[in-house]
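Researcher: Next sequence.
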Amino acid sequence: MVYACVVEQGLNYKETAAAIGLSATRASSMLHAYLGVKQMEEHSEYGQNARPELFSHFDQAYKQLPVREWLGWDDNSRRYVHKAQLERFYALIVGDEAQGQRPMAAVEVRDVLPGILEHKEAKAKLFSGEVSVAQAGALVPDDAPSPSEIFRGRAGDLLQALEDLPLQYLFSKDGRHDMKKVQELSERLEGILKAYTKDKIGRAA
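Model: Next structure:
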């Protein structure tokens, strides 16, 4: 339903959320996960392994910035464009029973893979086949940047970018694509704030 509203009908996440009773943030999250599985279905080798159970893996792949950037998410095409990395990701989440390699769990995509990707030794050993995901994760020191630290750094860069972007440019014909990003960001933040307020009220009750 989210795919039909956003991709086929051209609605934004706020309109989609209102139409089907979801938050805009949840609608966005569901769409990106669905598109990840859908893209995997098209792969000549790994397409046969694409299944609904991998929805959570692609949900986390998009949510975790180091993973999303490693796979090369492109907003315009709504696809991951780093093909070599994408095939490595497919191999990790599918596993290889003959080689004794279990599939990587969605929780590892969330909690382990981001640290591995930002640690040179762990990343090299994982993709050389020398170690498993769990073993590579153990190589990452405890002082590796947390998702919160990564977010704060990226948020600071974003705020600075917005400061440097002239409003008149955003309002012009040439700035329409940048303004679309601003609108998407606003909708995402609005969804997070609504969810936070709802959670806070629930805890108070």
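Model: Strands lie at 73-74, 79-80. Residues 176-204 form the longest helix (29 residues).
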